[in-house]
Write a structure and sequence with these properties.
Elements lengths: L1 H14 L8 E6 L14 H10 L4 E3 L7 E3 L2 E7 L4 E6 L13 H14 L7 H8 L13 H7 E3 L5 E4 L7 H5 L9 H7 L21 H4 L7 E6 L3 E6 L12 E6 L3 H10 L4 E2 L4 H7 L6 E7 L4 E6 L27 H10 L2 H8 L4 E2 L23 H10 L4 H5 L1 E8 L3 H17 L3 E8 L1 H9 L5 E6 L7 H8 L6 H4 L4 H11 L4 H18 L2 E3 L2 E2 L1 E6 L2 E2 L23 E2 L1
Parallel strand pairs: 1-10, 1-11, 15-16
Antiparallel strand pairs: 2-3, 4-5, 5-7, 6-7, 8-9, 9-10, 12-20, 13-17, 13-18, 14-19, 21-22
Helix pairs in contact: 11-13, 12-15, 17-19, 19-20
């Protein structure tokens, strides 16, 4: 009878707003949930769900970004020179289906990620660790079933054993990512997912799991189990068979409410406990200080954003004449470090902080969150300096840039006020230096920009990176390595930087890694491959009767970033 009553409450809440009951968490978001399959979870909306329905071997300890603690594992040992990891798994853990979790489920989960490894997923980084390549077997023909099978196995003692081809200091952090959660192998196979056997592995290589059978009917070990989902609402309820501490909140309702004003009204009435806001300027004006609101500020920001200055622009449409004749720019315009430094001095960082971040932002020295290990606060930063910008423009291209002038076109993400404002600041300041300088800026759909930037067709764009796992490699290699994910967008290459980044990937000595990342940061400051955007100071707000939300326990690596915690850690008073 209790289950029926709880479900009735959920159904009422999704059809008509009512004051949020004490045993129910009501969340309103602007968009939907792409997937509930951990094997393809690679966005925050999906991650916020999967991390509460499923669990990983280990997790972050409290608010720490560096300390990891056991979750489905109870302990682990590292051997073989840092290339073998052996995990003891928790006993008496049940999936939502009622199946008992075994080592075979964990082995299946990781092998499934290595087998499928589609472009839509984040499995490239676990494949890098376990196979030595981020590719799947369709794209890298050297990947065989034998290699996948050997990478992760259960030994005779029921322990899970990972065998890496090389040392990876970020491996444990990667295991804390919700996409590496343990799934219910018997249940999944019964649904029609991969069998877990060699016989049909090739049919699943590169397969997009976004709308998989498992996504439609998930079964994890998490504190909450799935009830139902439609176009406008997601419902979950506490799992009676959960191995850990029982959660204080029984029901979870997530509603899709596209209109910001409607979300704000529901929140201020108390009909919603948490909502997706409208950005700092809007939220400070409309929400902060209102009755019933808990506002938490000065939280860590783990996103890094920059202007990319592409050193090999592959789109003639942005180059004008394609020459330094005052009517265009050559494809290699940004290859001269004098041009990049001139642009870096021409950007007004303080104005951006004031206009976009309401004065709540700060400059970083490198494209790495300042809360991450490896960040060096002593490296220099650029400031708006007209004289220095002019000085470097006069040196650029042997004096030809200053003498002839240039015309270039830069695109920004359509609908992004911060990106548009940043472009406008830069355009105004650069053009003020010399009447022969011209930057044409234009809005472009995000999907088109992403696609074109991947193939080097954008001249200059503003783009950021949010972490997959809390390790500096996820930022430093991504931005600064010529083998990194973002290289095609910048085409900046420095052999010494590449060497330092590879060395940092191949040692588990934290002090040595930090030293190497500092060297990369200093070299990048000198070479100015990017204009580093000031980092906004993060904040959140919830109804003040919600407990468990505080700056002390807020972890930005938790996908459900409104609270920086899991649902099971929340309560109501």
């Amino acid at each position: 009878m209790k289950k029926i009553a709880a479900l009735s409450t959920l159904l009422i809440l999704t059809s008509a707003l009512a004051a949020s009951p004490k045993d129910t968490l009501v969340v309103q978001e602007s968009s939907d949930i792409p997937t509930m399959d951990p094997g393809v979870t690679y966005d925050t909306a999906s991650g916020a769900i999967t991390e509460n329905l499923y669990e990983t071997l280990l997790t972050y300890s409290g608010a720490s970004l560096t300390k990891l603690e056991p979750l489905l594992a109870t302990k682990w040992a590292i051997s073989n020179g840092g290339k073998t990891y052996t995990f003891d798994l928790r006993k008496n853990v049940k999936f939502h289906s009622g199946n008992a979790m075994t080592c075979a489920d964990a082995e299946y989960s990781f092998e499934r990620n290595l087998v499928t490894n589609s472009a839509e997923s984040g499995n490239w980084f676990i494949a890098e660790s376990l196979l030595g390549t981020g590719a799947n077997a369709n794209d890298d023909k050297t990947i065989t079933w034998a290699r996948i099978d050997k990478a992760v196995e259960c030994n005779n003692s029921g322990q899970l054993v990972f065998t890496l081809p090389a040392v990876d200091p970020a491996f444990l952090a990667k295991l804390a990512y919700t996409g590496q959660s343990v799934v219910d192998s018997k249940y999944a196979a019964k649904l029609g997912e991969w069998s877990g056997k060699e016989a049909d592995w090739k049919a699943w290589v590169g397969k997009d799991l976004t709308n998989s059978k498992l996504s439609q009917a998930p079964s994890g070990t998490g504190a909450y189990k799935f009830v139902r989902k439609d176009a406008n609402a997601f419902l979950a309820t506490a799992f009676d068979g959960y191995w850990g501490k029982k959660p204080a909140i029984k029901n979870i309702v997530i509603q899709k409410v596209p209109e910001l004003a409607a979300r704000q009204q529901a929140f201020l009435r108390g009909d919603a406990d948490i909502i997706e806001g409208g950005g700092r300027a809007v939220d400070e004006e409309q929400i902060k200080g209102k009755p019933g609101v808990l506002w938490i500020d000065n939280l860590p920001n783990t996103v890094s954003t920059a202007f990319f200055m592409n050193e090999n622009i592959k789109s003639g449409g942005l180059l004008g004449s394609g020459k330094l004749d005052g009517k265009g720019i050559p494809a290699t315009f940004f290859k001269d470090s004098n041009v990049r430094r001139a642009f870096s001095y021409a950007f007004n960082y303080k104005q951006y902080i004031d206009d976009v971040q309401n004065g709540k932002g700060k400059q970083r020295t490198m494209l790495l969150p300042d809360t991450f290990p490896g960040y060096d606060a002593k490296i220099g930063t650029y400031s708006y300096d007209k004289a220095k910008a002019e000085q470097y423009f006069k040196r650029a291209w042997g004096g030809q840039v200053w003498k002839n002038g240039f015309v270039m076109t830069a695109n920004y993400r359509a609908g992004s006020v911060p990106s548009q404002t940043a472009m406008e600041i830069l355009k105004k300041n650069v053009e003020a230096l010399n009447p022969k300088f011209r930057i044409n800026i234009q809005a472009k759909p995000w999907s088109e920009m992403l696609s074109d930037s991947k193939t080097g067709k954008e001249a200059m764009i503003v783009i950021g990176w949010a972490p997959d796992y809390a390790d500096p490699d996820n930022f430093m290699y991504t931005f600064y390595s010529s083998n990194g994910y973002y290289f095609p967008r910048s085409n900046w290459k420095d052999a010494q930087v590449d060497k330092w980044l590879e060395q940092a990937r191949n040692t588990v000595n934290t002090a040595e890694r930090n030293r190497l990342y500092s060297l990369v940061g200093k070299k990048a400051y000198e070479q100015a491959p990017y204009i580093l955007m000031p980092a906004g100071i993060a904040y959140t707000f919830v109804r003040d009767n919600l407990t468990g939300v505080s700056a002390a326990n807020y972890n930005p690596m938790t996908s459900f970033s409104s609270t920086g915690t899991l649902w099971k850690d929340l309560g109501k008073k």
